[in-house]
Design a protein that fits this description.
Elements (H helix, E strand, L loop, with lengths): L16 E4 L13 E7 L4 E10 L13 E6 L8 E10 L3 H19 L7 H7 L1 H18 L9 E2 L1 E7 L2 E7 L3 E8 L2 E6 L9 H9 L3 E3 L1 H4 L19 E3 L6 E3 L5 E2 L13 E6 L4 E7 L1 H4 L4 H9 L4 H19 L6 E10 L59 E2 L22 E4 L9
Length: 443
């Protein structure tokens, strides 16, 4: 979802590389998905990744350019253990320019935040990834405001970036694009949320923008069709809650954080990312980074189930894009742009997923010290009952709530099951969320 003046905002019922959408229609076969591999020697892992981007179908704007962009930067900062994957989903009249600007600026500013590539970027990012991502994304936002070639007054972009740093995975998110992981747990592949959508559906984000002077209402509430004070929005009914200025019908964003969107900053729409760090354990099979063109109608678990069905990540990309495209057309007369990155995590010593040959594995081995995480910290994810079409549930404190995951079994031909090598890892993954509370002031 974008802004009320932009692309996705209308009420319903009607090898290292970078790119922008060029699919143009429903994908067939592998739909142009590309495949790459990158070693992570420090953790004895190999990443096998696929990317796919499909242009949205807009019957009223047949020549419309895709507003999605993506980035794959292997051996980031020249470090063989650093690999960066990111997706940007632009919105507004200049959404394409905003997404492209963010794609180009983020790796440069993240490198600068990690010491400018002096050979120690990996250790700096591992020591404080939240601070590095915060500095980089806020920097992208400031540079976009100052760029004469980009009009971000009423346009902007989401950004979700996943950085593999040796045996750790750091995910930074601004907006409602998303990252999820597939984790082998209790005999099936469960979804682990790696990011948390920042929208007015979230009680903590809603309270934060209201404290900055925003009104939070759907289009129906603004038009007087519904009670303007009601907060019982449902994901599959009518227009979503949006952020509005007190004195005008702008910006109308369906998210509470973004890069760009200068006019929205005064009512609390900020560029401050939330960052999650996880230790890559033998149970981590893959992760997905995608725009909300995927997650608008597919849950995180459904996406994970589809990846688990396909040994080749290119086939998984195409299957997810095709299903997303179909669901868009079942609900509306158009589709959103769809961008997907799928990264399989494999053990460098065998052809299967990481740890799949460790039949009696009951721990993740030597733990990585991630910002003082306590041993046995549970995985935190949004509640399934409230996590429909990208809605994240919150506890009274505004933190993600813990739930028991449902999951699907992988395809019988998946490498995970070859030779009976599948192992169940019972120890919880070590994780930590980093979210800086506050108003709309940027550091």
């Amino acid at each position: 979802m974008g802004c009320a003046q932009g692309k996705c905002c209308l009420p319903r019922g009607g090898a290292g590389g970078q790119g922008r959408g060029a699919g143009g229609g429903l994908p067939g076969g592998r739909g142009g998905a590309t495949l790459g591999r990158a070693a992570v020697p420090g953790a004895d892992l190999v990443l096998e990744y696929a990317t796919l981007t499909v242009d949205g179908l807009y019957p009223d704007s047949p020549g419309r350019e895709s507003q999605d962009a993506y980035l794959v930067a292997t051996r980031f900062a020249g470090d063989p253990d650093l690999h960066l994957f990111a997706v940007f989903d632009g919105h507004g009249a200049s959404g394409t320019a905003c997404a492209g600007f963010a794609r180009d600026a983020l790796p440069r500013l993240l490198l600068a935040a990690a010491g400018g590539g002096d050979g120690d970027a990996g250790s700096i990012l591992a020591a404080d990834p939240a601070a590095a991502f915060r500095e980089a994304m806020v920097g992208v936002n400031a540079e976009m405001h100052a760029a004469a070639a980009v009009d971000d007054s009423m346009s902007g972009t989401t950004a979700v970036a996943a950085l593999v740093a040796g045996g750790a995975l750091h995910v930074a998110n601004v907006g409602d694009s998303r990252a999820v992981a597939g984790v082998w747990r209790d005999g099936c592949v469960a979804c682990e949320e790696l990011s948390w959508d920042q929208t007015p559906f979230r009680a903590d984000e809603r309270a934060r923008v209201k404290a900055c002077g925003a009104r939070v209402m759907s289009v129906e509430q603004v038009e007087g069709v519904r009670d303007p004070d009601a907060e019982g929005w449902l994901a599959d009914e009518g227009d979503p809650p949006r952020v509005w200025a007190r004195d005008g019908l702008y910006p109308g964003t369906a998210f509470t954080r973004s890069l760009g969107d200068l006019a929205a900053e005064g009512v609390g729409v900020i560029a401050e990312p939330e960052v999650k760090s996880v230790e890559i354990s033998p149970s981590h099979l893959f992760f997905v980074v995608a725009s909300d063109g995927v997650f608008e109608f597919l849950s995180s678990q459904e996406v994970v189930d589809m990846v688990a069905m396909h040994p080749d990540p290119r086939d998984a990309c195409s299957a997810i894009a095709a299903e997303s495209y179909k669901l868009w057309l079942e609900h509306e007369n158009r589709t959103d742009d769809i961008t997907i990155i799928i990264v399989h995590i494999r053990d460098a010593q065998n052809s299967g997923p990481a740890g799949s040959d460790k039949a009696n594995c009951s721990s993740t081995g030597a733990s990585i010290a991630l910002h003082g995480v306590q041993p046995g910290l549970p995985v935190f994810v949004p509640s399934e009952a409230n996590h429909l079409n990208g809605i994240a549930a919150t506890s009274s404190s505004g933190s993600p709530t813990e739930r028991r995951l449902s999951c699907g079994a992988p395809s019988p031909t998946h490498p995970l099951l070859e030779g009976g090598k599948a192992s169940e890892v019972s120890r919880p993954t070590q994780v930590e969320w980093h979210s800086k509370e506050g108003g709309n002031e940027l550091e």
